[in-house]
Amino acid sequence: MARVRTGVRAMGAVLAVVLGASLAGCSSTGGKRAEERAAAQAAGGRAAVNTPRWTFAMVTHSGDGDTFWDIVQSGAEQAAAKDNITFLYSHHDEAQQQAQLVQTAIDRRVDGLIVTLAKPDAMKDVVAKAVKAGIPVVTVNSGSEQSKDFGALTHIGQDETIAGEAVGEELNKRGRKKALCVLHEQGNVGHEQRCDGARKTFDGELANLYVEGTNMPEVQSSVEAKLQADPSIDSVVTLGAPFAATAVKAKEQAGSEAEIDTFDLNAEVARSLKDGALGFAVDQQPYLQGYEAVDLLWLHRYNADVLGGGRPVLTGPQIITEKDAAALQEYTKRGTR
Questions:
Q1: Per-residue pLDDT tens for 225-271?
Q2: If you write DSSP's letter for every residue of 220-250 in order, what string do you get?
Q3: Average pLDDT value for residue range 120-146
Q4: What is the pLDDT of residue 130?
Q5: Dihedrals φ, ψ of 109, to 5°?
Q6: How many C-beta atoms lie closer than 10 Å to residue 187's C-beta?
Q7: What is the pLDDT of residues 279-323, one digit of tens each?
Q8: CB burial of residue 22 (10 Å; 0-12, 13-18, 19+)
Q9: Pairing of strands 112-115, 137-140
């Protein structure tokens, strides 16, 4: 089910060279030969390591067409290419269906499992089954508070409450007084934490707006109606990059002066930051979430390594503004930011 992406082999080659150099010790000749061997292996489509061909599955709560999860998947695939891993990716935005996909991975007896816990209650039992079956589990993106209790090795992602608090502080710096937090997936605990965190540190007033994220016209009309009804709203915060552009359209249709800000980054968000259509974005580095999840499972299988010391491995938040956008555009174009 994994998609082969351009750049996988190239990235593997770079990483293989680095790995070869680090293993070569103090001998300059040995280092050069190790680099040449690693580069040749990558060029031939081979991994940079000679560990067994393990199979890892990633099951996320993504809906169709979400560019954020394309970036997560890209990172996971590139790590898998380096680590000699057969990588299986599946997703469903309905919690029960996501749980069933995890059960399918368990039935296939995968060697490692990566899951998201956007709706942890629906995932608790099936994650417990994986752990009982001896399958090491890493959680990513959402569910950091439940990850350890569910038996996962570690969690990789941003702390959603901390990220929300960073948004509230940034709104204060910008002199904002009244904000709208647009939640596009009801029941997602991470989304609630983001808005609650922002409300905690924001000196002004922040209200939640629940929309149906799978219906962009409805999202636009809901945001537009709110802005028309309350001209005092001076900031709209969306919780995903694809919704930022929709909020910009809603603002224009409503004739509003509100600033549009967003969680997450993609190529369109980087362009919009650069041209001033967006105020700021909160980057949680999704590529890193996918890459590190696969790499940590490989390290655990190979060397019984675990990172985090029982705490989440944080990949964000990082506040991105207009001054950062130009430098990041190169990376968003290749699908790694």
A1: 999 999 999 999 999 999 999 999 999 999 999 999 999 998 899 99
A2: HHHHHHHHHH-TT--EEEESSHHHHHHHHHH
A3: 96
A4: 98
A5: 60, 50
A6: 12
A7: 999 999 999 999 999 999 999 999 999 999 989 999 999 999 999
A8: exposed
A9: parallel
Rounded CA-CA distance 55/84 in Å is 9
Assess whether pLDDT exceeds 70 at residue 168: yes
Amino acid letter at 66?
D
Beta bridge partners of 313: 156
Helix (H, G, I), strand (E, B) or coil at 88: strand
DSSP for 163-225, written as a single string: HHHHHHHHHHHTT--EEEEEE-STT-HHHHHHHHHHHHH-SSEEEEEE--TT-HHHHHHHHHH
CA distances from 97 to 90, 208, 211 (A): 11, 27, 21
Burial class (CB in 10 A: 0-12, 13-18, 19+), 53: exposed
Contact 59, 105 (CB under 8 A): yes
- Please tell me the chain's helix, strand, coil percentages from 3-state DSSP, rounded to the nearest 5: 50, 15, 35
Q: What is the pTM of this model?
A: 0.79
Q: Where are the beta strands (DSSP E) in the chain?
A: 55-60, 86-91, 112-115, 137-140, 154-157, 178-183, 205-210, 235-238, 259-263, 281-283, 313-314, 318-320
Q: Please, which residues bridge with residue 183 across strands?
A: 210
Q: What is the pLDDT of residue 45?
A: 55
**Mean pLDDT over each residue of the chain, to the nearest integer:** 88
What whole-number distance in Å separates Cα of residue 143 and Cα of residue 126? Answer: 14
Q: What is the pLDDT of residue 75?
A: 97
At residue 272, what is the residue type? S
Query: CA 29, 79, 131, 188 torsion: positive or negative?
Result: positive
How far is 275 from 270, CA to CA, in rounded Å? 9
Contact 232, 254 (CB under 8 A): no
